[in-house]
Structure formats: structure tokens, C-alpha cells
Amino acid sequence: QKEVEQNSGPLSVPEGAIASLNCTYSDRGSQSFFWYRQYSGKSPELIMSIYSNGDKEDGRFTAQLNKASQYVSLLIRDSQPSDSATYLCAVNSGAGSYQLTFGKGTKLSVIP
Amino acid sequence: EPEVTQTPSHQVTQMGQEVILRCVPISNHLYFYWYRQILGQKVEFLVSFYNNEISEKSEIFDDQFSVERPDGSNFTLKIRSTKLEDSAMYFCASSIQETQYFGPGTRLLVL
Do the chains contact at A98 and B103, CB–CB below 8 Å? Predict the structure, then answer.
């Protein structure tokens, strides 16, 4: 059973701070990793993908992947109230499969 | 920017009735998916579709479910005899390869 674990939160940070969201996964063979943002009652919206160990930056977002530790994280710099949402970690096991396994998500609240 | 669209946005049905949820994937995408999210729970994979056939399905996707691409643009999910526990948000997604883009979802309520 492939598992993706996230701290459900809520994680509260003040506006302008760095928010750090973490995710671990059970399938050591996993190859592709995604962060989605989900506002209440809405669909998952892709923020970033990461495939290789290390950091990947896109604007205020940085994804970090450590395959040896089976750990992926998302940093949000200069957090804004509009970043308040649930952040979903999703993992693709590869090996010809594009099926995503999602974590339950971490609810982020950015306090003005 | 191209988007995945889904209709209807909300569907209310009686237990035992058939429902069809519709999706229009992004036009140049090759892979199509259905996921569901029961209220307060995680997003769960149902099925993937490629080259006019199912490529993967989960344990949830039993004989009550079917998918079809009836024409060059639509992708449908049919639930033949709905149960109370089918009440959920159903998301369609599409991709060229691994990176999936989700539609806005259909909220299904089975009474």
C-alpha cells in the first residue's frame, strides 16, 4: 500500500514569513512528486513538480526532494493571506504508471 | 490558458440511479483520469485512460463504474447504480505525460 503522509495542520504563519510544508512517502521507487494547492470546495491546482534530488525554485515557491529520506517539502517565501489553503503532496510511482497518490494535505493559514 | 472543464458542477440523484459525469480534457493531452474526494478526505485515484482504453484502475473502480471517450473531446464517468457512499467531489484530470491538470469538479450527492 503506497502511502503519502503530511502533517494535517493547521499551520499558521504571519504574513511575510516563510511557510514550510513537509511530506513523506512510502514507495522508495517513486519518481515524480507534485505539490497542489486546494482552496476549500475547489479542485487541486498545480504549484510545482520535482523529479530530482535537490531544490527547485519557482517564484516564491521552492520544492525540495530527498529520495534517500523519502521526503519532499515545499517552502513558501513572503507568505500572503491569499496563500491560505490546503497544500496537497502527490506522488507518482513511475514504472509506466501515472496514477497519483495524494496525502491528506496540510492546511495553511497566513495571518495578516 | 487551456483548462479542463467538467459538467455538471453539481448533481443530486437518488440511490440506485445512474449518473454520467462529463469532462472535456485539455485538447492536446493524451492521458485522462478520474479522481474522487469524499468530504474531509484525501483525493483518491479511480481510473486512467490512454489510447481509448483503461490503462489503470483502483480498487474503488468496480463494475458499477465505467469510462468512455465518446468523441474526440469528451471523457465521461458513468456510475450505474449509485450508492450513498458515492457522494463525493469527482475530479477529471488530463496530462501529456506525468503532470496532471485538474478540472473544477462535479459535486455528486446521492440521497
Answer: no
Predicted local confidence at residue A21, as pLDDT: 97
Q: How many CA atoms lie within 13 A of B26 on its CB side?
A: 19
Is the CB of B102 less than 8 angstroms away from the CB of A44?
A: yes
- Which site among A43, A46, A107 would you substitute to test the B interface, given the most B Cβ atoms closer than 10 Å to its Cβ? A43
Distance spanning both ends of chain B, measured CA to CA = 37
pLDDT over threshold 80, residue A27:
yes
pLDDT at A35: 98
Please tell me which of the candidates A32, A43, A100 has its beta carbon nearest to residue B103: A43
Give the pLDDT confidence score for residue B26 in this predicted structure: 96
